[in-house]
Amino acid sequence: METPTLEKLLREAARDAALSPSSHNAQPCELALLTSDEAHRALAEAGAPLGEGVYAAVALDPARCLCALPAHRTEMLVSGGIYVEALSIALAARGVRADLRWRLGGVPPELVRLLAPWEPLAVLHLTPAPADTEAKALLPLLAARRTNRSPYRSEPLDSTVVESVRAARSRAFPESSEVCGLVTLTEPDVLARAGDLVRRYGALEFTHAAAWHETYAHMRFGPEVIRQAETGLPITHLLAKPLPGWQQALLRAVLSPPSMRVLRPLGLARSMAQQSGTLLERSGMLLYLHFHEENPSEAIQVAAGGRLLALWLALAARGGGLHPVSVMVQHPEPRQRLITELGLPPGRGFFFARVGVPTAELPPAPRRRNAAERVRTV
Ligand SMILES: Cc1cc2nc3c(=O)[nH]c(=O)nc-3n(C[C@H](O)[C@H](O)[C@H](O)COP(=O)(O)O)c2cc1C
């Protein structure tokens, strides 16, 4: 039997990496294979050995990136790190070793120019290696993992599940365990205080005009639209239940930015924040990820995505669900309140989520099609 080429294996791995979670399901990552003469020249000039293997770049497509809030830059970098982690798992499972040659901030300018307008987050050197059995075991979890927004069972999570989340390590960014901190919160009084904070600040998600405008543009309403969607957030996933077409149409009208402005005095945003707070305090655990510094480098923010996917997969392996509540870390005031009122460590919070055993299973979220074919040769 013929051995598949590294390019073929990369294209196959791209299909698995496409299942990575990303903020608003924007799927901002693209993949390029650096095999043109020009790319080889740039690689050689930058000191990369060309004898063995191939080079590939993971990049952000600015056209797909969220930008309404400064915190969205972090979310895009973290989503990029998640993608690199998923790709590394998918490659290792297929017998391809992916060494991180350069990362955001250090990519040689000539390669940056060749990839423009994409913004390279990581340049990987791919070489053949024995298939990695641990990575093989993770492969089905890349497909099984979900953002589960259903209510969770309220009893505390089993301590082995909590431990597995704490122990999860990124394979693409091993240093991410040091550069970003993880806090797991299971005490009922802490969960109650966190629920209060979400009730107090959660409405910001709907009342911040620019952020809501962008979120709404990513929402998908209507059975046919949802079936065809390749990106974004189906309303049935956001509400974690099936809805007839007429209700979806009604919600499309009610949630539109102009109606939300008009309905604001009626307290719609407040009532949605109340529900969100209640769901949160009735979960088995809260998860908080933070950088130790207030202004970490962008490379550190990408690396953090590796740790996040590793722990998300560890949860998925044990039937645990995760539902981010990013509004609490997107705005300076709730971000600070989380620290002071929940007694969290100092530093910049970048991910806050409820975790638990979901009461409902959910279908997969939409994904961009033809991931293998979309790998661009540069
Ligand atoms: C950095 C980041 C932030 C996210 N924030 C939220 C959030 O605030 N609320 C939410 O419901 N989902 C959030 N999500 C989940 C995404 O919407 C989800 O990953 C995407 O819709 C794809 O769905 P899936 O995770 O089920 O594959 C976030 C995901 C990431 C990676």
Automatic annotation (TrEMBL):
InterPro entries for this protein: Nitroreductase-like
SUPFAM superfamilies listed in its UniProt record: FMN-dependent nitroreductase-like
The name this protein goes by in its record: Nitroreductase domain-containing protein
Organism annotation: Archangium minus
